[in-house]
Amino acid sequence: MLVEKFKNNTIILASASPRRQELFKELQIPFTIEVKSINEVYPTNLKGEEITNYLATLKAKAFETSIAENNIVITSDTIVWLNNKALEKPKNSNEAIEMLQKISGKSHKVITSVCIKTIAKQVVFSDTTVVNFKQLSTEEINFYVENYHPFDKAGAYGIQEWIGFIGVTSIEGSYYNVMGLPVHKLYQELKIL
């Protein structure tokens, strides 16, 4: 549907995430991948989607000097929000285990922000999904971390992986948002771009 609209554009997905790339492919829009390294640090006073909005915008800013006339740059950022704190990507197994212990038996929010940037304009939007987890056993947490190495995932889990199959009891909102891209909102925003 959007292929015709963007036939004269180069859409750049600025994300190394295999999940985002997979979801983008399913939207049936041709795209290229270009990732610029940035220091993902945000002001400590930011909360919830303020954090992801800030980081998605920061990632887009890295393209400011290199963006061409027909380029559309899309950046994104996801966090798990629990007890008024952001759970980002774990640095190691211990951090991953600790994060999974925190979300075990509770509900948390997954917040993803997307920034669409062209030479002429910039649009930032976010989506929030509530995820409910059953009480996870120590064995289940250890098995998941040892076998799936969730170090590139906010909150140390992928809903589309084993832990999601056995641990997620319900969600309120977009499943794909939890994977890292609110594709329904992205589609809408691209339609009106």
Short description:
The record marks 19, 78, 160 as: Important for substrate specificity. This protein is an alpha/beta fold.
| β-strand number | 7
Oligomeric grouping of the chains: single chain
Order of helices and strands: EHEHEEHEEHHEHH
What is the CA–CA distance across the termini?
Answer: 14 Å
CATH architecture descriptor name:
Alpha-Beta Complex
- The top-level CATH class is Alpha Beta
Report the major sheet: 7 strands, mixed
Q: From the alpha carbons, calculate the radius of gyration and give it in angstroms.
A: 17 Å
Helical/strand content category: alpha/beta
- In the predicted model, the low-confidence regions spanning at least 5 consecutive residues are none
Topology-level CATH name:
Maf protein
Enzyme class: hydrolase
Family: Belongs to the Maf family. YhdE subfamily.
Protein name: dTTP/UTP pyrophosphatase
Catalytic activity: UTP + H2O = UMP + diphosphate + H(+); dTTP + H2O = dTMP + diphosphate + H(+)
Give descriptors for this structure.
193 residues, 34% helix, seven-stranded mixed β-sheet, cytoplasm, alpha/beta, single chain, Maf protein, 25% strand, 7 strands, EC 3.6.1.9
What does this structure look like?
The protein has 193 residues and is of the alpha/beta class. The chain has one domain (10-192): Maf protein (Alpha-Beta Complex). The protein has helices at residues 18-26, 49-61, 93-103, 138-148, 162-167, 175-179, 183-192; strands at residues 10-13, 32-33, 71-82, 85-87, 107-117, 122-133, 168-172. The longest helix has 13 residues, at 49-61. It is globular, with a radius of gyration of 17 Å. Its main location: cytoplasm.
